[in-house]
Amino acid sequence: KNQVEQSPQSLIILEGKNCTLQCNYTVSPFSNLRWYKQDTGRGPVSLTIMTFSENTKSNGRYTATLDADTKQSSLHITASQLSDSASYICVVRGYQKVTFGIGTKLQVIP
Amino acid sequence: GAGVSQSPRYKVAKRGQDVALRCDPISGHVSLFWYQQALGQGPEFLTYFQNEAQLDKSGLPSDRFFAERPEGSVSTLKIQRTQQEDSAVYLCASSLVRGGNSNQPQHFGDGTRLSIL
Question: Which end of chain B has fewer CB within 10 Å, C or N?
Answer without folding.
Answer: N
